[in-house]
Structure formats: C-alpha cells, structure tokens
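Researcher: Here's a chain I'd like modeled. Treat it as a single chain, no partners, no ligands.
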Amino acid sequence: MMKEQNKFVAARAMLKKTEEDLGDPISLDRFRNAINVLLAIMSGVSPRIEKDIAKKLVLTYRNKVLSQVKVIVANHDSHEAEYLEHWNKLMGVFVDPSLAEDAEFNACKEHLLRCGNQPIVSLKAAHSDFADKPEPQATWEPNDGYLRILKEIRTMLYSKSLRAIGQSLEMLRLPAFRLQKRGDFYIVLSGSLTETHEWILKNYLAEIILDSAVPDQTSTELTVGDGWLCYGPLDISRLNAREGKKRDNHVDQQNKVAHLLGILGEHLDSKKATGFEISWAPDSVTVEYQMANGARERKDFTVEKLEQLALYSKFKGRAVATQSAATQGSG
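Model: Modeled as a single isolated chain. Structure tokens:
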C-alpha cells in the first residue's frame, strides 16, 4: 500500500494527466481513482493542511467538470447517448458524504440525466453499489517527465529551492508567514494571504510557464486556500529555472525574502535536514528542523545574524577551496 504522501503525489499527477481528456471514457477510471484518493485523505488521519489541500483540489476539479457539463447540456442534441452517460459518471465521482451539497452542481447533474433519458434513481443505485466496494487504489504512476522533476526536487539543495520560493514570496509582501516542507511540497501559511495574493502568484507562474522548458506547460500545481498556499514539484522546478536564468543574466536578486531564505537553506543543507518549518517575522526568523538521525533543533536569527551566517559560510567555503588547491599543488 502506498504511503500517504506518495498517494497524494500520484493523485495530483493523475488529475493533471486526465485534465485535458475528461471527455475520453478511457480516463474515467484514473480520474475516479484520483478523486477517491483525495477523498480518503480528507476523511483519514492526515494533517489538517493536507486535508485542506485535498479538499481544495476536489472542489477545483468538481467545478471544472461542472463548467464542461453546462456546455454539454446547452448542446445536448448534438451528443450521443454514450457521451452523455460518460459525463453522468464523471459527475457521479463527486457524490460523497464528505463533500458539502452544491445546489448548482446537483441541478446540472439532474438536467444532464434528463437529457440522456436516464432515470435519476439509476444513478443513486450506482452510487450505492460503489459505496459497498473497497476503496480504489491509485494504480497510475507519474510519467517519465514528472518522475524526472520529482528526482530533481528531491535532490535539490534547500538553498536553491528556498531562494526560488523567496523570489515569488517577495512579490506578496507578507509581513509574517510560516513555511513548511511536507514531502515534495512546500506550504506557506499566513493570515495575511488574500485572493489578490493568489492572483499575483498565479499570474507570475503563468509568465514562467510561457518561457519554461518544463513539460506540461499549460498548468501549475499551485494550490491556494484560506490562509495558505502550496507549491508542488512543477512550481519549484520552474521557479528555480527562472531564478537560475536571472542569475546567469547578472540581475540583482538580493531581495530580502529570497536572500535570507537562501541563507537559511544553506544552513539546512549543512545540517542535512530532512524536514523543517520556518517562521518569518519582520525582524526575526526562526527555523525548526529534523536531521537524518531523528534529532531536532531550533535556531533563532535576527536579520543581522543571518547576514553574518552568510559571510561565515562564504569565508569557510573559500578557505576549503584554497586548502584543496594547495593540497593538489603540493601533490
């Protein structure tokens, strides 16, 4: 059985794979599996933030299905009965006790049923049969392109990933936030996050996608909820590529958030941290992290101390390089 985090990654990847082919009956099982994995996370013992992300994804895809069904209903005479039945089944994926009732969704579903001349009771029976079956497991594995990106993110230095995230956070000008690493995802929590911040960040990522060499250039993994946002592997990869390109072009990137998060990343790299949470305030930063041996540490920094830490790291790096060169020369 897959670990919870792997199930979460696989579900998101499955949804991305089926997003453009919702009308293809072949994609139905993958789509149903992905949604049911997220519903299981919502009703399971996962941390609250993961439950919220799963719910946000389910509702997002429910709205996408609803939007397409509205178009189909408006032109139902031009569609075959089998096609209408397929969309009936897609809408049925979202009938679950853990989801709040949506009047518009239910009305559209019933309208679609009438268009296909299928009694509503038959769909209810189908839901009852499905409820008696074991929980479906995600059977699709991420494709080679996504696996490559996962490998890149899992081996990426924290100094790079945090500096890249900092570039995007700088635009949001959040006075305080918490940044957590959860598996392959980075989660930002702040009571100051608004819909305007979501709009700014999604537009920024959209600009990166247009100039990105990363596969699947039509979408992001960014998920936003009430007071939080979550960067997925695709987003981190793209942000890092943009950050690297700007460094290559000698653009000054020493903004406060990116610069200081990059310094914290170097500290976490030196400690070989496996997980962490950063608490950011206007005049101070706290980082709690866990190392490979299970030990946990906490460090409190002022901005001045972080700058000193950066200077020390640079001095130490140069000293090591000089010593290495001297050793090679004497050999």
